[in-house]
Each structure stands twice: as structure tokens, then as C-alpha cells.
Automatic annotation (TrEMBL):
<feature type="compositionally biased region" description="Basic and acidic residues">
    <location>
        <begin position="26"/>
        <end position="45"/>
    </location>
</feature>
<feature type="region of interest" description="Disordered">
    <location>
        <begin position="1"/>
        <end position="45"/>
    </location>
</feature>
<dbReference type="InterPro" id="IPR043472">
    <property type="entry name" value="Macro_dom-like"/>
</dbReference>
<feature type="compositionally biased region" description="Polar residues">
    <location>
        <begin position="8"/>
        <end position="25"/>
    </location>
</feature>
<protein>
    <recommendedName>
        <fullName>Macro-like domain-containing protein</fullName>
    </recommendedName>
</protein>
Amino acid sequence: MSDEISISFPSVPTTIVGESNMQQQHDSRPALEAQPHDPSPEESRIKPHFIFIEPKWSHETRETLIKAWNRAIARYYPNREAVSPFTVIEGRLGNIEPAQIQCDCMVSPANSYGIMDGGYDYVLSDVFRQPKTRDFWHISNHVQSYLQTQYRGYLPPGSCIIVPLPEDVSGPTRFVLDPEGRDQDADGNPGINYGNPWGATSMAVLPTMREPANVEWHQDLVYNCMWTLQVEIDKWNAALDDGDQKVIRKVLMTGLATGCGQVPAEKCASQMVLSVKHFNEPVLVQPRWSDVGERGQLIEDTIVGEGNPRTRYG
């Protein structure tokens, strides 16, 4: 709802018109100045940009997310003149030039317990090792401390929590001199690299399953996960000043539940992209079924659409 603008007019001199004296007097009111516009919450909202990555497969026996993402973006964002909120890049996290995937937040497609030792979570645990001790469980332990505090150790599938990265792996890579360090600067001085190559300062923990399992049966799991991710990003940003370095503007993530979860690439890609489109076109206030029918049909199409036959559980 837009704010009402109250305008006060100065008093206007009155001309008394007599029968014998028909004269006109110009309006002496000053020109009205444009009133400052107070942006609505939707106007001031930061709409994040999503960077999707997937490794290049050595064979084409399975549908790739890269192709599926690009198809979904073309389907739901047909206006080529509009700026797409997505970038799609083929490659592994460690092999892509860091400048291409600079981000503020990295997404862990986690399990409910924050045990980050498989699939893409394994990669995240490896790159976010404690810089000095090289502890593999550094990021898992950090995430689990937040799960304990806020969710009693269990984050239900489809939920999301955003946590700041540990200070020693947060933000752009920085070299600190240390006689016992294993790295070296340009002059050969020993030290340790802190931070990360992508400049990320936060991690979104987004479980698609309680524990590693096939979740192909779930009809709109990916859509719902993307929705809760965006809700938490909005909450995170709303609590910060716009100039804060930890505001989330770019999000780096892979597909959701396409590994051991076995969600088909087409279904995953369609629901990821559609969820972002719908989130940026919020549901009407006090909707009725007639207002949400089209949205519901678009979601349904991602479940039973071409390349997405219902499973025997659906």
C-alpha cells in the first residue's frame, strides 16, 4: 500500500468582485514542490541474483541441469529485454574462475542435521576448512551450533536458516603472515590464507531431506525450498543497513535434491526458476482461489510437465 501524501496549501487572497468593478487577480500561490516519495517495502526490497552452477558431465546419459535451467529461464522470463535474476555456469566450484562467481551467500543443500560430508556439502566442507588446523568439520560444527540454538539441532526439510560464515573463512581471501604458515606471499614469506576466493560472508542451510534418501516422490519440494530461501534472505537483508558488507545480493548454489534425492533435472530447474519468479510477484493480499489458480497450475505443470512424469508415489 502506498503512503498517502498530505499537501497543505497556503491561504489564497480573495478578490471581491463588484457590479462596477470586474477585475481579476492572479493566483499568488507558490508552485507546489514535489513531495519526497517514501518507498514501499516491496520497492526497497533487495532482489537477489542467483548463480547456478553444475559440473560438466562426461556423458549425456542423464539430463543436465545446465540445459534445464536455461530452458526454464527462457520459459518463465520470455522477455529478453528484462534483466534475468539468474546466471548459469557449467563447472565445479573449485574449477570455475572465482571472479565469475563472486557472491555474498553460498547455499548448502543440506540434510536436517547439518552433517556436511556428502555431495556438494562435502565440497563446501573441504573449501571451508579451518585455515590453521585444516579441520574438515569446521563448517559443519559451525552450522550445527546454530541449529542447536535455533532449532534444537534439527532443521526440517524445506526449512532454511542463514548463518554468518566463521570469521576465519568469511569475506575475500586475505593473507596473514605466520612463521608456521603453509602458504606464501609473492615474496615467499610464510603465512595463512583466511577468507574465501568468492568473497562469501554467509551460508544458507537449506535441507531437502532429513538424511540422504530418494525424495523424488515429493511433488513441490524444490519450489518450497527456493521459497523459504528467499524468505530468509529478505529477513536477513531487512535486519541490515543497505551499505552493510554482509547484505545478500548474489547467491551461489547448485541444483536441489538432484543427487541422491533423484529429483529429475527438468523438475528441479523448473521449480527453482518458477519459485523466484513467483516470489518477485507476490500473492495478492487476501487472495481467493480464483486469484491463485494460475500460479497453482504453473506449479502443477512442473510436476507433470514434459520430462516430468509423476512417480509411482505421486
